[in-house]
Design goal:
The structure is a homodimer of 155-residue chains.
Chain A: H1 15-23, E1 25-30, E2 35-37, E3 45-61, E4 64-71, E5 77-78, E6 92-105, H2 106-115, H3 117-153
Antiparallel strand pairs in A: 1-6, 2-6, 3-4, 3-5, 3-6
Helix pairs in contact in A: 2-3
Chain lengths: 155, 155
């Protein structure tokens, strides 16, 4: 499946590695309003967008949902908590435009990575690179808040 | 070196993998006030605390340094940007109490991971797990800010 090669997680895999990956990948339609995953629940699968739109969100309190991002490009993915202990989703994902989604089960991918350490190393390297980037961005947002507070104290 | 096994990055390596790792590890003394790394600079090494204390910090603007953490437990490490493209430190680290530091060069570790994909996979998995945890924590801090703002608008 060519779509898998668009996903940053799988950047750098060989043709035969993509072949094995596609064998554990399933495609399914998702209706508008349906959830792919819920914050706090067990992370059992990784999801890759083929068509449609999926919104990522987190609940700030029971009455307020904070939107984090919208995934709409083929190859965009979510559910990376399924790649990392303790396998627990940290965000919710809701379909906002009818979608086709590729699904890779955590157990199947874990098995593939154990059988092929090179594949595992590439995937984990890509994931770490992504997470470090996101961490830097989130820290940057926090810094802006601190800056605002600092300037209000020392105008 | 037993100390390496205390570092979360190397959790799960075999005795022979630790042996190879120790062969590329160097130890050096660091004086109080000395910097191990500077935010924004090329990440050329990973640092592991043996003794002493190291403060991690980020500059919010030219005149204000925001402390992030203090490393003082044997096995605490910093400089993980040396494990991930684009190899650029995202924090500064200053010694606040005379220290003994283990140093592992990025190029040497990269070579070791290429020679032993299993070792690479374990290290990258540990790193991804750590980064996802830190990302969740940092998002949580941001949420608290949003909550405060939300409550000030809707008291």
């Amino acid at each position: 499946m060519e779509l898998l090669s668009l996903c940053y997680i799988f950047k750098g895999l060989s043709a035969s590695q993509f072949q094995r990956l596609s064998e554990i990948t399933k495609e399914k339609p998702i209706q508008k309003g349906e959830f792919l995953m819920h914050e706090g629940q067990k992370a059992e699968a990784l999801f890759i967008i083929k068509e449609g739109e999926v919104e990522l969100l987190t609940s700030v309190n029971d009455s307020f949902e904070l939107p984090i991002a919208i995934l709409r490009n083929p190859g965009d993915c979510t559910g990376i908590s399924s790649l990392v202990v303790p396998y627990k989703y940290s965000l919710s994902a809701r379909c906002v435009k009818a979608a086709q989604i590729l699904t890779i089960k955590q157990t199947a991918l874990e098995k593939l990575m154990k059988e092929d350490h090179e594949l595992g190393c590439i995937i984990m390297k890509n994931l770490a690179q992504y997470l470090l980037g996101r961490l830097k961005e989130t820290r940057q947002e926090l810094k802006i808040h601190f800056k605002t507070i600092f300037q209000s104290i020392h105008p």
